[in-house]
Amino acid sequence: MNNLDGALLKDYRPVSELVTPAHRAAKPSCPVIDMHTHFGAKYRNEFFEKRYSAKTACAQLRQKGVCRAADLSIFSGSPYDRKKKKTKRIDHFLYRFAPIDFSSLGKKDFEQDIRRQFGQFDREQIFGIKIWKNLTLQMQVGGAHVFLADPRLSVIWEEAAARGWPVTVHAADPPAFFKEPDGSNERMEELLAMPKWCYAQDPALSFQGLMEQQERLLQENKKTVFIIAHMGSWPSNLRQVGRWMEQYPNMYVDTAACLSELGRQPYTSASFFEKHQDRILFGTDYFAGEGQCYEIWYRFLETKDEYFPHNPQNPSWGGRWNIYGIQLGKEVLEKVYYKNAAKILKLGRKGEWDGAGD
Ligand SMILES: [Zn+2]
Known about the structure:
- The protein is α/β, with parallel strands linked by helices.
- It has one domain: TIM Barrel (Alpha-Beta Barrel), CATH 3.20.20.140.
- It is built from 13 helices and 13 strands.
- A nine-stranded parallel sheet has the order 10-9-8-7-4-3-2-1-11. Strands 5-6 form a two-stranded antiparallel sheet.
- α3 (110-123) links the parallel β3 (94-99) and β4.
- The termini are far apart.
- Residues 36, 38, 256, 285 line the site of zinc ion (ZN).
């Protein structure tokens, strides 16, 4: 036995000896709209009200240069109603994306129920619809998984298109989450810590199958604008995401939770941002009351720093590797940080967006 036999991977926190320029990007170079945040429950039964103070969370984001945030609600019903109450004082700061209540899916009044829900949204001030991954990865109707291209769901895409509301879709998790969490899995540490994130045991769910459904959704609902969250669900294959972006003009992507993926492929990322600069939306997946990573995002997007941690607190979370900055040009940065968001949310009406942040 050598000394390595007793060493644990979880204790491995190497400190890089690389000496290259390192910048602190405390503020972004222009106003930022974070198109992917959560001010509500993370788990259905979470008492999230205790997690944060609305006023403080808003002040903290502003301090980081975020002038507005899209608040994506993942749970309908009581968590959604409670969230609206909780964020009432900062309504001016948030663009609310409403969740769909799927409880009548599979029953004959589903379509009517959806139209009723949209009627309710008309009375609220919402900016878009959020579809969370529980639809495709967890929910079962009549013992079968629900697929994005299921014709029963068409009514949702139609109603959203009729109102000009974008639909943010979280369709899948990283491909590694569909594989066995063994020593060859690049996300093994997270999957061992969070076994419910692993879908390898469910033969009815495959990453490829989810991607086929996602493509059909874009193809069959051309009038609906979709923001496919987490870089089109496939940040580790930007070539494929790029092909979809070219084929489907109704497809936008947000960058939420993709810092580690984008940062490990700086050349590929830089050309992707350059090429698709009009349909990429900055988003982080920030949860109010939890830590945030704006400075690391700004460092990635705005500097040429090399080999820095994407998650200093927890180096295995998001992948045990370091990242590289891509230093985007001013014009691309402005589009990604706020101009594309302003366009997709049709901002510009008085009081919604002053163009300069505040
Ligand atoms: Zn999210």
